Amino acid sequence: MEVVVQTRGGKPSKRFPITIKLESTNATVKQLKLQIQSTSKLSFHRQRITTLEKKALDDNEAQLASLGIKSGDKLEIKDLGPQVSWTTVFLTEYAGPLFIHPAFFFLQKLIYRKEFEHSLMQKVAFGLILAHYGKRELETVFVHRFSSATMPILNLFKNSGHYWGLSGLLIAAPLYGPWNSAKALEGTLRSRENFVWGMVGIWAFAQLSNLHTHLTLRSLRPAGTRTRAIPKGYGFNWVSCPNYFFETVAWTAFLGLTWDLGALVFLVVAVIQMYVWAVKKHVRYKKEFGKEYPKRKVMFPLLA
Question: How many helices (H) and strands (E) would you count in the chain?
Fold first, then answer.
């Protein structure tokens, strides 16, 4: 099989067009990309290949023939630019709060210009932040399976800005200040153990539920594949993206515990972004599975 690979619109460049010869009639998209990499020196992960009709060849294991590609066809390629692995992005963005919060918690004299006793609320909130992002890091290494190996390197800075800025600096700076110290909160609701541990209970329930949904999603995708199946069971019987719902519950409990303005801003931004992602996944599920996909809400049970 021979195919011609050209840039979008067919405009000549230093690398393209090129003619790729594939020995097997059962050649896959992956084999095509590897041959393009060998011939043009354009990295495998920087390639986005489409037909002239703009149909994306994004399943690396699919045979070209099964996608309607035949010898003599022309394909278009786009250079996606510098890439970075999903794992690297996740580990980097979640690391920010794990360094920023300890700095504000332990360096009170340097940052707030005075020493004071942390309140129970501050101590517990600090522990919840470390537990949350520690969980995120472990899930990245041991649980998550990504459909794509890489993403544009600019996402590393965008995502890190979100977590380092909003969940890191914006929450930590006011949260660990003297205005939330043991003396300042004495006699208030946030100093009562029943209230504090009640919020922790809600937070823990949501975190464990979130982990359960991540493990369910992992079980649906064998390692090294893009296989998808209809997610079912706890959480998924209510909504398409229960992981986002439980994430929302966890951060709502954190906000209820701390009354922190930074936590409110982070929660609002996060919920909006998660809902956008949830809608896209919900639509994709319905398109992919058709009538087999159960009737369920997008992210919030009984609501939306």
Answer: 10, 6
